[in-house]
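Lab meeting minutes (informal)
Scribe: AK
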Amino acid sequence: MPEKEGRDTADMILFFDRLFDSVNGYTLKPEKSLRVVVSHDSPHSSFWGRAAKRLRRMRFVDPTDKKPLKESVILKNWISTIEGFRRLWKVLRIYKFKYFKPRILNQDSLANFFGQIRSLGERNVKPTCSEFESSFKMLLLGNLASGCTEKDNSENKTDGPLLFTLKEFISFKVSCMNNDTVTENLMLDLEMTSSDATENNDSMFSSITERILNNSHVGECEVCKNLISDSAKSELAPSKCLLKVLEDADNILAQRMSSVCYLHHTALMLETELYMSLDLRWLNCQQHRNVLKELVVSYTVVFYISKWCNGINEILMGKEDMSL
């Protein structure tokens, strides 16, 4: 390549690199001069003015006869984008904004999302509503694992976790209904769901109690037995204190699970959360205090993870479990 053409090519690449940076700033600490939030002392305004003028002078050439084309939608849209940013920043300054992040206005995330929808299973560029819903659920369960579609022109950058709460996705809210029959049926369904969830929890709590009592140290200690089980009801019935702890733990883990389920050492993080949140001072056996605390917390986490995974499996099988 001749030296002049090489310099021209390098200059053009640098220009578009800086232009891309100027509309993708998202941090207060600049990665590059223009890859930063727009503020009163940032170089964006002056650069955008020069960039718009330069884009107006640009022309694409016909690949056959090498003649300049009259207009290009790409260049026209770039100019429109730049002018839009400039006007937006003027308005924001009127309302005393100190800065704004251009990146939040781009559509890369939306393009990535629809690209992944189309890429699931067979190449389906026109999914039906039902197919779209199924693909959406799969992406939620997979936590949008791939950052972007392959061979696309959008940036592989995420600004935070993308895990959604499955319970919120499958739940629904009943608004005002005039049909008494429909309302009664819905209330009956909710009562049955609540009853099933209670039975499942009772079974899980009894299993946790049994596992704790099966420990060689605890099973031979009368003090531990009295702390863990309610002998008046059954040897496997949890005591009032243990039942209260297990119910509190179930609520705590339900709120925490969706934010850690895709990370390493999930069980360890959940155990740490329970140690910090639960009141375990009632486990006051002088000989086995620490062992009891460890058993209660560890078995609670193990059984909850199993319950949560079963709920996910039911969702995948088309059974909506509202107790997640």
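Next up, CB showed the second protein from the same session:
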Amino acid sequence: MNKRRDLSVEEKLDVLKKYDELPKTSQRQAACKLNVSQSLLGRMLKSRQEIENASLENVNSNRERKRVGKEEVEEALKQWFTKVRQKDVRVTGPLLRQKAEDLAKKIGKDNFVATEGWFHRWKKRENISFVKPHGEQGEANHVAARLWIHSEWPSLIAKHPPSCVFNADETGLYFRALPEHTYAFKNEKTRGTKTSKERLTILCCASMDGEKRKLLVIGKSKNPRCFKGVKNLPVDYTANSNAWMIKEIFTEWLIKWDNELHHDVLLLVDNCTAHVVTVKCT
């Protein structure tokens, strides 16, 4: 005779799960298939709610045990976060996770890893959200864009394959600016700070099928000190007093590209005055 063995909560829950998956049958037949006695199966079915509650308590208990050792790191991170937010410092997710690991090493928790899951749960526990302190973004003229797509675009694209259709546009790189968003306590009042206006202008150009032209970077200095000793740049660089795109720079860029081409291309640009050129490309 087999020695009677009490089932653990997890084992009982597993039996109940398998019971639910069985086709409709008698309790006696189900007990045979599940390799338990009919009386035990009957008791488990009657006390199903208690078994599920006990299992849930075990899961929560395990989660709490897993967090043992992290409380010191989390408390240290919260204190650091509170201090820097009082100074209105912009705080991003990567910065918080890196700071957590740095603090963990300082207090001897070398095995601590600031995973994405841990970070998400920590934010939720501390009532922290990602906000934008100030600033608004204007909306594009979507009506005019849709009209152009339907009226002008079909005739243009019909004459050129995707590899010969390019779009070029400038963007500003405020290389000294702080992030616009920051993590903050949900009940915290955020305030804006003066943003550095130092910038570079970057002209980006790519085709419909993904070919990317080398970036054109426009700065204020023709020979920046940081270029000292640099023989090759991964971008084309030029300069003017405002670090803006001007007609002369755009024309020079256009002619240089045209000299490299052996076929016609369609270049789409916006109506910036710097893009209005009279040069004839071959």
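CB comment: Residues 48-67 form the longest helix (20 residues).
No objections, moving on.
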